[in-house]
């Protein structure tokens, strides 16, 4: 039986952005006769709009300064899921036989993310959440300044020509380390003889994620989420119950995926990040996923609690 795979992640949908070229098409300076490097500049704008993601101006002052941030490489989706880039997220892997005893499990075993290294003065820290690089393009048209007066520094005569400036960079924001809180408990009431030890059959995992926009740190507010994963194992009814709840900001888009099923999705109303949508949060809860167990799987689980099983049969309860 495969482990239970749970992802909670946020991404900036491509629908928020546009190709870089569209920001310059109506600019009267964006003409071959007015620019000395028109063909090169246009090729750069087209090249970086063909890499799977689109672009939107940095909030407030991005477009006047020619600063454009990338979206992720997927449009918003509320059902069919495909792998795509994200801003930040958590990816939990839970083995069914370990439900009820997750307090003994290492967080690194539950959240198997690449470790990103950051240096802050003389010390280094590691993160255990998953994030992708944030991409930035600086693209603008500026006048070419001719020879200047050696005395005043004022241009001797106007050149009346312009050039395109294009710079690309990518960076990962500083991430706090994940500090999951795990609690095992007994969810199903059973009748047993006095003194009988009844093992726990459920676990709760709480984890918080945060990540900032790396090109404006520490001034830009973080993207934040607080997620609680609940798993219950019922060997008598032969099923595993999985649900996720918590809260997240109003930007960007968010999704929860359990065993490759999208069980929760959120589309932001705003076209970009801001002080309001990144400093306020909404609560959410997912659909419940029920995973059927066979008699053989139950016996194998009792015989060898560390064994990984090879089949899951998830059913999604449409009721939230």
Note down, in words, how this protein is organized.
7% of the residues lie in helices and 37% in strands. It has 320 residues and is mainly beta. Strands 10, 11, 12, 13, 16, 17 and 18 form a seven-stranded antiparallel beta sheet that branches. A five-stranded antiparallel beta sheet has the order 7-4-1-14-15, with no helix packed on it. It is elongated and about 100 Å long. Mean pLDDT is 83; it is low at 305-320.
Give the key terms.
5-stranded antiparallel beta sheet; elongated; disordered C terminus; single chain; 18 strands; 7% helix; 320 residues; mainly beta; 7-stranded antiparallel beta sheet
Helical residue percent?
A: under 10%
Uncertain runs are 305-320
Strand residues, percent: 35-45%
Terminal Cα separation, in Å?
26 Å
**Would you count the extended β strands for me?**
18
Q: Given the structure, what is the number of helices? A: 3
Computed over alpha carbons, the radius of gyration is 26 Å
- Structural class category: mainly beta
Shape: elongated
Q: Strand-and-helix sequence, N→C?
A: EHEEEHEEEEEEEEEEEEEHE
The biggest beta sheet reads: 7 strands, antiparallel
- Mean pLDDT, nearest integer? 83
Q: In a nutshell, what does this entry contain?
A:
This protein is mainly beta and 320 residues long.
């Amino acid at each position: 039986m495969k482990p239970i795979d749970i992802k909670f992640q946020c991404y900036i949908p491509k629908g928020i952005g546009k190709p870089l070229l569209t920001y310059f098409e109506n600019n009267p300076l964006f003409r071959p006769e007015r620019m000395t490097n028109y063909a090169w500049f246009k090729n750069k704008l087209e090249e970086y709009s063909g890499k799977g993601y689109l672009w939107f101006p940095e909030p407030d002052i991005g477009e006047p300064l020619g600063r454009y941030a990338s979206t992720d490489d997927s449009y918003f989706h509320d059902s069919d899921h495909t792998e795509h880039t994200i801003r930040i997220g958590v990816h939990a892997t839970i083995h069914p036989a370990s439900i009820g005893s997750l307090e003994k499990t290492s967080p690194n075993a539950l959240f198997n993310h690449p470790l990103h290294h950051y240096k802050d003065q003389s010390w280094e820290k590691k993160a255990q959440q998953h994030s992708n690089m944030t991409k930035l393009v600086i693209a603008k048209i500026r006048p070419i300044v001719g020879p200047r007066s050696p005395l005043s520094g004022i241009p001797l005569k106007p050149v009346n020509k312009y050039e395109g400036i294009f710079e690309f960079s990518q960076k990962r924001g500083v991430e706090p380390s994940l500090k999951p809180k795990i609690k095992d408990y007994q969810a199903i009431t059973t009748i047993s003889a006095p003194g009988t030890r009844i093992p726990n059959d459920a676990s709760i995992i709480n984890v918080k994620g945060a990540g900032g926009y790396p090109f404006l740190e520490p001034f830009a507010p973080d993207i934040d989420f607080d997620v609680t994963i609940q798993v219950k194992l019922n060997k008598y009814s032969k099923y595993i119950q999985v649900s996720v709840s918590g809260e997240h900001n109003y930007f960007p888009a968010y999704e929860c995926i359990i065993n490759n099923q999208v069980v929760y999705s959120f589309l932001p109303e705003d076209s970009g990040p801001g002080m309001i949508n990144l400093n306020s949060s909404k609560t959410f809860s997912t659909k419940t996923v029920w995973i059927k167990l066979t008699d053989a799987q139950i016996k194998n689980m009792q015989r060898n609690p560390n064994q990984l099983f090879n089949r899951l049969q998830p059913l999604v309860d449409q009721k939230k």
